Amino acid sequence: MPDLDPPKRSRWTLWLVLLVCAAPVVASYFSFYVLDLRGRAYGDLIQPTRDLPASLALTDLKGAPVAAVSLHGQWLLTYVPDRACDEGCERMLFMQRQLREMLGKDRDRLDKLVLVPDDVNLTPAQIDALTAHGAPATVLRAPRAAIEGWLMAAPGHRMGEHLFLVDPMGRWMLRTPATPEPSAVKKDLERLMRANAGWDKPGR
């Protein structure tokens, strides 16, 4: 059989490299979705997953644009305060913070993301609480319609009643029940961290 010409050999080499790189990710997703969480997850698995839109118009709290792709590379426990942040909203933000800390040595693999619709205002005290701690949340603004075009509440509920989990490739893949039970969410997160320990490393 004749040798492959250089262009063909290069393509085969590229595909082999991609396959080797993707294998741990594929295996971890199989273990997470099929072997570990299917039928056991407390939260709702989103199937198929929904990609973070590259065109999502994000800004920081000072109004500077933030590229959506900059959120890739880390698990994101996401909260959307879909109206004025009242006691229920503050309770969800506290839960978001505590869930990350409850992961112990795996907490650095998970970031807290707060997506604030453009028609919602947080108080200075709330912003300070989100951004001034040792592991501050990433707080970004976006048009409400754009957020709701990506993340969705369960039927009969509001966005602000849930936490949303986004994987390191920017795919929304899990939604907690409304007004979730922290210990049950923690179990989902722990299963996920175990399933992805082979390839997922802290930091973007």
How would you sum up this structure, described in words?
The chain has 204 residues and is α/β, with parallel strands linked by helices. The chain has one domain (6-195): 3-Layer(aba) Sandwich (Glutaredoxin). Helices cover 37% and strands 19% of the residues. The protein has five helices and eight strands. The chain has helices at 6-37, 87-102, 124-131, 144-148, 182-195, and strands spanning 44-51, 58-59, 65-66, 75-79, 110-117, 138-142, 164-166, 171-175. The strands form two sheets. It has a six-stranded mixed beta sheet with strand order 1-8-7-4-5-6. Helix 2 links the parallel strand 4 and strand 5. Helix 1 (6-37) packs antiparallel against helix 5. The protein is globular and about 60 Å long. InterPro entries: Thioredoxin-like_sf. Keywords: Membrane, Transmembrane, Transmembrane helix. This is Cytochrome C oxidase subunit I.
Report the strand count: 8
CATH superfamily caption: Glutaredoxin
CATH architecture: 3-Layer(aba) Sandwich
Strand content: 15-25%
Query: Cα distance, first to last residue?
Result: 45 Å
Which descriptor suits the 3D outline? globular
**Helical amount among residues, as a percent range?**
25-40%
Query: What is the succession of H and E elements?
Result: HEEEEHEHEHEEH
Set down the secondary structure blueprint:
Blueprint: H1 6-37, E1 44-51, E2 58-59, E3 65-66, E4 75-79, H2 87-102, E5 110-117, H3 124-131, E6 138-142, H4 144-148, E7 164-166, E8 171-175, H5 182-195
Parallel strand pairs: 4-5, 5-6
Antiparallel strand pairs: 1-8, 2-3, 4-7, 7-8
Helix pairs in contact: 1-5
